[in-house]
Each structure stands twice: as structure tokens, then as C-alpha cells.
Amino acid sequence: MIYVSSSCLKNAKIKDSVEELAINGFKNIELSGGTEYYDNFENELLELKDKYNLNYRCHNYFPPPKNHFVLNLASLNNNVFQDSFSHLQQSIFLSERLGAKKFAFHAGYFIDIKLNEIGKKLSRDNLFNESESVNRFCNAFEMLKRKAGGIELFIENNVFSAANSETYDTKNPFMMTNYEKYISLKERIDFNLLLDVAHLKVSAKTLRLDFEDEFKKMINVSNYIHISDNDGLHDSNEALRKPSNLLSMLTNSKTEGKDFTLEIYDGLDAIKSSHDALELAIL
Questions:
Q1: Residues 6+ apart with CB under 8 A from 47
Q2: What is the pLDDT of residues 158-196, one digit of tens each?
Q3: pTM over 0.85, yes/no
């Protein structure tokens, strides 16, 4: 099944993004970041679900909090950690009310990213103790898992860019950016992997790993995949274009029974063409 992320459209209200996607024929919608909190958004989503026969899935920074912050379940700052844990609980409960069966959020960070630096080159900051940070993340994940009921929890691989590698003198401030780190975390906690292919493409280049080899190993252990393309240097959420190496890699992979979400920021035409290209690649 192919979903489209609500973050592909830049509306302040989630209702507007969902209805725009629905009017353009997209029935499977992943609710993600980029919108603002307002009263009654949940009832509006339920009304749109019935009106257009939609399937929903919540992702990471949704629902939008009243006061924005950078979600980090590995933070050793108690305020950030508690805000993150509370947000993820709310997302799980909302998933249940919306009829969604899967919920994914990003692996943690060994720094607290500033709100105005999300998705950009980071400024230098002191790194947390990695062992303590991973322990906090794992313990919190186990607590969330007990609260999740019938909702499957997934953890998404992070993106490590060359620019941020330079800032941190090659020290990686992000959890789970490649297959080796996935295995390391999997040995600590039993979780499902949300594979973000675009994140992996950038991280593999930064870490001087073979992207195709990393992709093959990680897609084989995931049934939930985020898709967009980029130049390997920046996570730029570009459209899927035919022909492309990424589409060839997907065609040559076992994709039966896997869910995909498009995260394309190039406008509706690019979303539609990417949807068609992805559909052909995974048939």
C-alpha cells in the first residue's frame, strides 16, 4: 500500500492538507509534521475520513503540539525527554482513535537540536553520554510499547549529512543511521524498522558505506518504507524520476506486503508522477 505524507503540502491546518490530497485521489494519508495545533482538528480528520473513505497513519511529530519543540526520546534533558514521551503517548492514542495500526517515530539524538535548525546544518553543541542516552531511549520505548496495545511501533533511521559530520568532527550525533547501528539497537530492544531510504542515501555517503548494500540489507528487515530521492548530500525530498537507480533498486527488491510513504516536496504533479513510478516499481 502506498501512502502520501501530509508534510508534502505546506498548509498551516492539517484539515487543508488532508482534503487537498483526498480531492486529488489519494486515499492513504500519513499525518506528519509541518502544521499548527488548533482546536477540533481530530473531529475534522474523522469527518474527512468518512467523507473520502481515507486510511490514516500518524508519524513522529503529529499531532502538532501547542508549543513546538524538537522531539528526542534519547535526550538527557529531562524537560525535553518528558515532552517527547508525552507527545508519543498522545500520538499512539490518536492513532487508535483514527483507526491506524502503525505508528513510527525517529530514533533519538545525542544532542538537543535547536528548533530553528531542524533539517539544516547544526551548530556545535556538547554531546550527551551515548550509553546513557541509548539507555534512556530503550527504557522509554519499552514503556511506550506496553501502552501501545494493538498499535505496531516503528523506529525510523536518522539522516547524517556531510555538513553535520564536519560540524561534529566526524562524530555521529544521531542514533541508527545505518544497518550496523540498526543491528546494535535491535539487540537492545525488539522493534520494527521504518526504513527512510532518503535518509539512508545521505547517511551512507557521509559514512562512506555502499548505499545499495545498505539498502538491500535494511529493506529486507522492514515492511514500512519512506521514499523520496536526493543527491546523497542533502535530504531534499525530491520526486522519483524514471529512469533512476533508486527505482531500479526497488524493482529488484522483494516489496510484496510492504507499505510505502511518499515524502515529496516538489508539488502535486511531482507527488502524482512519483506515485505512478513507485507503483510500477513495486508491482
A1: none
A2: 999 999 999 999 899 999 999 999 999 999 999 999 999
A3: yes
